[in-house]
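Hey,

Quick one before I head out. I ran the complex with guanosine-5'-diphosphate overnight. Inputs first:
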Amino acid sequence: MNSTEPTASSHKSGFVAIVGKPNVGKSTLVNAYVGAKIAIVSNKPQTTRRVIRGILTRPDAQVIFVDTPGIHDLAAHGRSSKAHGGNRAPLLNRVMVDAATRAVNEVDVVVFLVDGSRMPDQEDARIGKLLDARCQMPVLLALNKMDLLKPQHVQPVTEAFWALAKHADWMRVSATRGDNSDQLLDQILARLPEGPELYPADQVTDQNLQAIATELIREQVLARTRQEVPHAVAVAIEQWEDRRADLTHISATIYVERESQKAILIGAGGAMLKEIGQRARAEIESWVGHQVYLELWVKVWDKWRERAESLRELGLSAD
Ligand code: GDP
Ligand code: MG
């Protein structure tokens, strides 16, 4: 007799942290499982700044995915100046890495997601060590981006990642194509405890509409900027007014750290800001389900990433 076989009436629920270095596809994977864009995606590192929950509800289970900021090397991202006590990354980066690191012990299962199309680097190795030393929960190693993997690299890449996460079961997936996503989900479900639904069945994320809107605006900025600009951008909703049952009026500020960045975001004759606004408005409309009027401002907030007060005000602090 197999006593682990679930009975027809058993229902599972639990939390699954997706951790890994920036840009490996964590948010893409969560969005794919949830079936909605609950976390923005870009090809820039550190797109995800807060821990975001994405909820998958099916008849037999509710899986709450915890999308985390990429765990990255703070020293490598710090400023080169040693004048103020050495390399210190902005407070925001430390808060992000702390949040992701803490998440691994606040869940039932951890998915260590890596870019399986290339060899691991030091950041992957650090995360592997961290999970080994600090994580009490079952870990699944998922090698993402298998659509980019060249046949001759399959074996060396797999072996190299396996060496970093020795105790984890592993599989290859593609978050964008959906390859093996059912198999990975089965592995996750096998490790979740029995339990009731923890969120209403129609809820796909723990974020409110305003928080989602700020992210959708930031996503459009990330898609159009390079180098230090994506890192220096934060968005705040100033006003959110339902003028009619079918019309919401939103006013939002895009913060940057320098005048030069402000000029980039506004663009020649305001063209850049207009394009960001148009695209973000369309995305926000699909979330709120009706017409949106979106007004955007750009303001300079010197060193907002380095101050606890500004992080708190922008909803980016740990608590
Ligand atoms: P995160 O920083 O780990 O959350 O990564 P994102 O989800 O923001 O994705 C980073 C980039 O990788 C985006 O450009 C994604 O479209 C891309 N990406 C994610 N998964 C895959 C995949 O399976 N295959 C390929 N080719 N690209 C992917
Ligand atoms: Mg992300």
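DSSP finds eleven helices and nine strands in the chain.

Talk tomorrow,
K.
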